[in-house]
Specification:
The protein is α/β, with parallel strands linked by helices. It is 45% helix and 15% strand. The chain is built from 13 helices and 7 strands. The protein is globular. Bound molecules: S-adenosylmethionine (SAM). S-adenosylmethionine binds next to helix 2 and strand 2.
C-alpha cells in the first residue's frame, strides 16, 4: 500500500513565502513534496526549490513524483542547511520552510518501527543509515535518563512507573519490537479512553532518537545565515515543545532587530483544513521576515 502525506497550511505557507519569479526557496523538510509542489507552481522558470530531507525513501518518492529540473533534492539534516546550499553554489535564499516532525509515510509504514501497532524492531530513525535507534534508547539508557526524556519530550507524568516496568522487563530479556514495548506500558499504567497509553512514550523516544530539539535549534539558527534581507522564514510545528522553541527564537531575534515577526499569535488550522486533514489538528504556523 502506498502511504501518502497531506501537506498542511498550503495556502498560508504560500502567503508567507510569496514564492515568485527567479526566487530560491528552501523546503528544509521536503518529505513527500506537498509544499514543494505548490512552490514550484508559483515560481518562474528561473526559480529553484531546494528540498532537504534526511529520509532517503522520501527523497526517492518525491523525485519520482515531481520530475522538475527546478527542484534540487538533497539528503541531509537541516542543521547543515548552509553547507547543503553551498554544495549547490547557492549562498542565499528568498524563503525557508520547516514543516517539522515526521510524515505519515514514516509513521504509518510499520516497517519503520514508529508505531505501537508494529511488530517490527523498535526503530524510529528518520535517517535509516543512522546507527542509533529506539532499540538503543529503550534497552541501553539508564533508568534516570529514560525518565528524563519521557518527562521532557513526552510530558508523560507517569514516566517513573513506565520506566520501572521497562527496566524490570529488559532485565529478563531485551525489548525488541514496538508492540512489545506498547504492551509493557499498557501493563504498567492500564488503558483509559481512546488514546493508547504508550503515545507519549513513543513521541519522546522518536524525539530522542532523531535529536529533534537539537536539530530544530540549530536549523533555525542556520536558516538566518542563508536568508536574504526581506526573505521569509515559515515554520510549522506539531507540539508545544517545538512551538516554544520557534516562538522564542523569533521573539529573541525580533528584539535584536534580525527578524520581524509576521504575527504575534501562531496560525492554527481552520475548520476546512481540520475537516480535510484531521492530522493537522495540532499544527501551528509561525512566520518571520529577515531584516
Ligand atoms: C511533516 S514531514 C514534511 C512533509 C512535507 N512538507 C510534505 O508536504 O510532504 C517532515 C519531514 O521532515 C524530515 N525531517 C525531520 N527532521 C529533519 C531534519 N533535522 N533534517 C532533515 N529532514 C528532517 C522528515 O524525515 C520528514 O520527511
Amino acid at each position: 500500500m502506498i502511504i501518502t502525506h497531506l501537506p498542511v497550511f498550503v495556502r498560508e505557507v504560500n502567503e508567507i513565502l510569496v514564492p515568485a519569479g527567479e526566487g530560491i526557496y528552501v523546503d528544509a523538510t521536503v518529505g513527500l513534496g506537498g509544499h514543494s509542489e505548490e512552490l514550484l507552481k508559483m515560481i518562474g522558470q528561473g526559480g529553484r526549490v531546494l528540498g532537504i530531507d534526511r529520509d532517503e525513501e522520501a527523497l526517492k518518492r518525491t523525485g519520482e513524483k515531481l520530475k522538475d529540473s527546478r527542484l534540487i533534492l538533497m539528503k541531509g539534516n537541516f542543521s547543515d542547511i548552509n553547507s547543503l546550499l553551498h554544495s549547490q553554489g547557492i549562498n542565499e535564499a528568498d524563503g525557508v520552510l520547516f514543516d517539522l516532525g515526521v510524515s505519515m509515510m514514516q509513521l504509518r509504514d510499520l516497517k519503520r518501527g514508529f508505531s505501537f501497532n508494529s511488530d517490527e524492531r523498535l526503530d524510529m530513525r528518520m535517517d535509516s543509515s543512522q546507527p542509533f535507534s529506539a532499540w538503543d534508547v529503550v534497552n541501553e539508557y539508564p533508568e534516570k535518563g529514560l525518565i528524563r526524556i519521557l518527562k521532557e519530550y513526552g510530558e508523560e507524568y507517569l514516566a517513573p512507573r513506565i520506566v520501572r516496568a521497562i527496566a524490570a522487563s529488559r532485565q529478563k530479556k531485551s525489548i525488541e519490537t514496538c508492540s512489545e514495548l506498547a504492551g509493557i506500558i499498557e501493563g504498567a499504567v492500564g488503558r483509559r479512553g481512546r488514546i493508547h497509553p504508550a503515545t507519549k512514550t513513543f513521541q519522546a523516544l522518536r524525539i530522542e532518537v532523531n535529536k529533534e530539539m537539537e536539530e530544530l535549534k540549530k536549523g533555525l539558527e542556520a536558516s538566518l545565515s542563508v536568508l536574504k534581507k526581506g526573505g521569509r522564514l515559515c515554520v510549522i510545528s506539531y507540539h508545544s515543545l517545538e512551538d516554544r522553541i520557534v516562538k522564542n527564537f523569533i521573539r529573541d531575534n525580533a528584539r535584536e532587530g534580525i527578524l520581524k515577526q509576521l504575527s504575534k499569535k501562531p496560525l492554527v488550522p481552520g475548520l476546512e483544513e481540520l475537516r480535510t486533514n484531521p492530522s493537522s489538528r495540532s499544527a501551528k504556523l509561525r512566520g518571520a521576515e529577515r531584516l
